[in-house]
Amino acid sequence: MTPVARLAARLRGLLADRSDTATAKKVAGGAFLFRVGNAGIAFASQILLARWMGESEYGVYVYVWTWVLLLGGMTSLGLASAPQRFIPEYADGGDHALLRGFLLGSRVLSMAFATAVAAVGLLALWLFGGALEHWAVIPLVLALVCVPMYVLTDVQDGIARTYNWIDVALAPAYLVRPLLILALLAALSWADYAPTAVTAMAATIVATWVTAIAQLALLEKRLRARTPRGPRAFALRTWMAVSLPIFMVEGFYLLLAYTDVLVLSAFREPHEVGVYYAAVKVMSLVAFVSFSVSAAVAHRFTEYAVAGERERLETMVRDAARWTFWPSLGGAMIILALGWPILWLFGPAFVEGYPVLFVIAIGLLARATVGPLERLLNMLGQQNVCAAVYGGAFVLNLALAVAFVPPFGMMGAAAATSLTLVMESILLFVITRRRLGLGALPWGRGPGGRPVVSRLSRVADSVATGATDMGLAGPAPALDLGAASGARFEILDVAAMTRVRDAWADLAARAAEPTPFAAPDFAIPAAAHLSTARRVRFAVVWHADGSMLAALPITPRRLLPWTGGASTTLWAYLGPLGTPLLDGARAAEAAAALLDGLARSGRATLLFRLLPEHGPAAIALRTALAATGRASERIDGYGRALLVTGADPEAFLTASLSSKKLKELRRQLRRLGDEAPIVFSEARAAHETPAALDRFLALEASGWKGKGGTSMRDHADQLAFIRETIANLAANGDVRFLEMAAGDAVVASALVLVNGRRAWYYKTAYDERFAKNSPGVHLTLELTRRLLEDPEIDSVDSTAIANHPMIDHIWRDKLALVDLMVSSRPGADRTLALAAASERLRRRARVQLRDLYLRAKGLVR
What domains are there in the chain, each with its CATH number? Predict the structure, then answer.
């Protein structure tokens, strides 16, 4: 087979291949071809502009167009990159209302902000234009008119790239707009308009507006065919919480990219600015490779991270580094070889910039060495640290440019930029390795292939036995290093967890410490229905044999602006425990794998809220922390009422309550029975619980909760949640209602959840018309008697608040609960200390504000 035939066969194979890697290659190749086409057109336009206007007017145009690029890139508020984060998340999760809202809202928000910035800029030029050079004012006015439509094109580019519509994404900005500018300039030249920067900017305005509107029409046509019709939902706070850090990253990146031109314009004449810009344009061909790869793989980073596909993510990161560096190196060598004649095309004076090419190439190749790591960090929730890197790089570049440009001119500007790019690349690589365990050099294999619990090899023979270091109590058992080898970590939404419900239920049945609140019968309805649970995800660890090792509902918790974190989910106080489900046979290994996975997903800290301090899960967690060298901070803790069964009921109640109190309670019960006989009954069977639940909800709604609009019946999401949950639990015999009736009227109802040999006194409600005779207390006493005699129950958690005025006087034992913040990263972690201090401060401030409110209302003194 001839070389041509082999090449044709490879191309046909690539076009037929539908794998993600092949798709990414094709998208990258398509993006690269667009950029190559744009490069040719851009060179032609820049050469024609330089020849037509001369070095000085060309330098003015370059200065003004740089402001368009800078303002246009920054005023998108990061929403040009956010589509690659949100569109895959909403599309894969089936959140079509949010998807539709984002597709519209991202463009409207960015356009509104860009228009406001342009208006402020025009006002500033009108008021203070006299302080500028006379040649700059009118071009700057025209540049500001370009900004809103430039931003619209930028955001639509991001949306189209996420759908792999590279033609819609790149053709308007990189092919049509420069061609239209050339055509308009030819028409203006033919009409004898003066060859000035003002003329060129006028043509640029028309081209920018026309291409933006045409792109809008094309994109809307494709979106209508791809996106189901329906209502829109807007999560502005969530979008901006993600987009603003990306905006910071891109803003600093743009400042970094254009600082050299702006500083050079401040210290040197337009002639030198024009020569320098021509050299930058020539060498920027190398950056097209990086752009093309980033356009193809950024949304793949998000998809694989959301799906928990670690191996595919590592492979994509390694491939991206190779696809970026080697073509960039080849392109740089070609450009350096042909740079002098290419610059001559701009005009004889432009060859002065040839030495600058070599200096610029150093920085670009350093940046290409690490691949699109800034996109990886942004897509995996590390946008804050990425912004910090770019912020530091901008400050360094500005300082170096101010130091180097006055004495060395354009060579100083090039040196400042290249040195900054080298430092920035090193920082991005080191941070990505440490935070995500990712990042690869183009000639290496990268950090892939490590098992989730590889760090467990540092287990000490003796583990701390006290509660002082870890905030927990009890001895730590030895850790079997091989039990969780090859574990796989995932972050899943409720739909994905529903698909693996059987494996999840199996884990719940063999968990080291049972809890209904992290098990599927409770957690699936909670995550699916509760409005407060929209952001809840499930951290899951899988064993190599396919069984589930650990499962924990988590919710984002950003305690510091530059760190990511999570906390156990309490389902907005409807699930009063933060106990993880850990495989009982290998609990410590499962806990270590869980923390290791959270670290790689970018969650620096995990706050375990309401964790039973002396339970098996806490012991396993302490063992994992000590074994892997992770730190922890105790945030808070309290003891809540607990009933330990097995005692004689009457002896128990006599010991708990004074004889005087028992006498008063018996008197109240007799008064309740004066109107009608008092009867206690239980509902356990699946056919009995729906009616019992309805009676419970009616009691709750008739009291103070109903009057305040806080009863479950007043909230459609809570009502759907509790009905589905009770149906699930009743099917397995894991729920019971104890009711107290006066004649035919139910005056009190208690809801108890059961899991294994433990129970939870979950909720109680009573008819407040009988409040003076304490129906809730009598119901609790009867429930206590029955639970103490139940041979299938060992202990009952009251699920009550600390120092509860009723249950604490009856159930005297205490379940010790702790709020514990742990670092997901081994070693001393300053972030953990800062996050813990921030959480304590937040809690104290909340208490102070609550007390201030109560005093203002006159409820306390």
Answer: 21-436 (no CATH), 488-638 (3.40.630.30), 649-793 (3.40.630)
